Every structure is written in structure tokens, then in C-alpha cells.
């Protein structure tokens, strides 16, 4: 690894938090804070002018939230890694951030050493997660899918589209489906639109009837 310090951009909508993180990271060997931003839009402007190695990103912010900003950073600046540092460790927040391309996910009770390790890991192309987040990821890996796997599905549905239809038939909202399947809510909406077009459903009631008729649901325990 280079002897040059790791260049980090801090993004958080609370000024006190930004200043605290900046002061904390400046005490960490091998890390240089090159700037801070109060929202995702400002962060993108700063990255375009002087790309850092890693962005330390909050999630809930005005103007442009952290998930959307992360996705745009990964699309426009693939050489810049993103580590999420947030108060939230719920499934939807984790799924959204990871689907957007974040390489690390920490909660705000993380210490300086843990934050430093996550930033260095992300810069090296690796991932480091808060223990609570890692536990949720492990749980997600063992969750049953929303519909039984079959060799063939009706109307050219993909397996994921069938799973989403099965979840709709069980009365789940888009956010609940996202949490169950561990994907971003925007991804769920895309699957729903594609599935509705394939099966000719005009609403969730028709989609639920279709899922039941074609055996796309499973019994929840």
C-alpha cells in the first residue's frame, strides 16, 4: 500500500457530527480528512473537483440522501469507495446501502480504531461491517425465499419476480419485501413493475390472486 495518507471525505448533515468525525480522524495515523459536506449533492460536487480515496457517508440527509449519493458515486467515480456511518442498523437501511455499492457499514457508536479499519479496508477493495450489521447479514443468508424454487415459472417470470409476487400475496409492503429479500426498495419496485407487465396485473390485488393461483406463495412460520 502507498505511504501516502488515506484521503477521506466526511459527509453528514449535522455540523457537530462532521466536526467531531473530522477531529477524530485527524488523530488517526495515515488518514487525512480532505473535506466535509452536509448532504450527498455537495459531496458529489466536492468529489468531482478533488476525488478522495474513501467517503465516510451518513444515510439520512436532506437534498440528497446517503444511499442515492453512494449509488451515484459508485457510478461516476468507481475509484472512490464509500463506508456508511449511520445511526440506523435496520434491514432496509443496510440493504439499500449495500445495494448502492457501499463497501462498509458502521453505526455511530463505532470507535476511532474501528472506523479507521473500515476506511482502510474499503480503500483496499475489502469490506468491514459493524458486528450488529454482520449478524443481520448472516441472518439474511439463511432466510427462506418468498416462493419455492422451480425449474420453470409462468409467463417468463424470473425467480425474484415470483418471490416478490409471493410476498405481495402475503400482504407485505414494498419496504417489508425489501427487508425480507435483502434488496433495496427501489429494486423491489422494479421487480413489481416487470412482474405486473408480464402477468397483466393492474394492481396488487390482481397480483396476489395470480400468485395464489400459480402457487407462488409459501407458508410463513
TrEMBL record:
**Which segments does the entry list as coiled coil?**
none
Residue ranges occupied by any HTH luxR-type domain in the UniProt entry = 150-215
Pfam families the UniProt entry points to: GerE (PF00196), Response_reg (PF00072)
Alphabetic keyword roster: DNA-binding, Phosphoprotein, Transcription, Transcription regulation
Q: Give the highest taxon in the source lineage.
A: Bacteria
PROSITE patterns hit by this protein: HTH_LUXR_1, HTH_LUXR_2, RESPONSE_REGULATORY
Residue ranges of domain Response regulatory in the record: 7-123
Looking up InterPro entries in the UniProt record yields: CheY-like_superfamily, NreC/VraR/RcsB-like_REC, Sig_transdc_resp-reg_C-effctor, Sig_transdc_resp-reg_receiver, Tscrpt_reg_LuxR_C, WalR-like
Q: Which residues carry this modification: 4-aspartylphosphate?
A: 58
Report what the protein is called.
Response regulator transcription factor
The organism of origin for this protein: Paractinoplanes hotanensis
Amino acid at each position: 500500500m502507498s505511504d501516502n495518507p488515506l484521503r477521506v471525505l466526511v459527509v453528514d448533515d449535522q455540523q457537530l457530527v462532521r466536526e467531531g468525525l473530522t477531529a477524530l480522524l485527524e488523530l488517526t495515523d495515515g488518514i487525512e480528512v480532505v473535506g466535509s459536506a452536509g448532504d450527498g449533492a455537495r459531496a458529489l460536487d466536492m468529489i468531482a473537483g478533488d476525488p478522495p480515496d474513501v467517503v465516510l457517508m451518513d444515510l439520512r440527509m436532506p437534498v440528497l440522501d446517503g444511499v442515492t449519493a453512494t449509488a451515484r458515486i459508485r457510478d461516476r467515480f468507481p475509484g472512490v469507495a464509500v463506508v456508511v456511518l449511520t445511526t440506523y442498523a435496520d434491514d432496509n437501511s443496510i440493504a439499500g446501502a449495500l445495494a448502492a455499492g457501499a463497501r462498509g457499514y458502521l453505526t455511530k457508536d463505532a470507535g476511532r480504531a474501528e472506523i479507521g479499519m473500515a476506511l482502510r479496508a474499503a480503500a483496499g477493495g475489502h469490506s468491514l461491517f459493524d458486528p450488529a450489521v454482520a449478524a443481520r447479514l448472516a441472518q439474511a443468508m439463511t432466510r427462506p425465499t418468498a416462493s419455492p424454487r422451480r425449474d420453470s415459472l409462468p409467463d417468463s417470470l424470473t425467480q425474484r419476480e415470483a418471490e416478490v409476487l409471493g410476498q405481495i400475496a402475503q400482504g407485505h409492503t414494498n419496504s417489508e419485501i425489501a427487508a425480507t429479500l435483502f434488496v433495496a426498495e427501489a429494486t423491489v419496485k422494479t421487480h413489481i413493475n416487470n412482474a405486473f407487465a408480464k402477468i397483466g396485473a393492474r394492481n396488487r390485488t390482481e397480483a396476489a390472486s395470480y400468485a395464489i393461483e400459480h402457487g407462488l406463495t409459501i407458508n410463513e412460520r
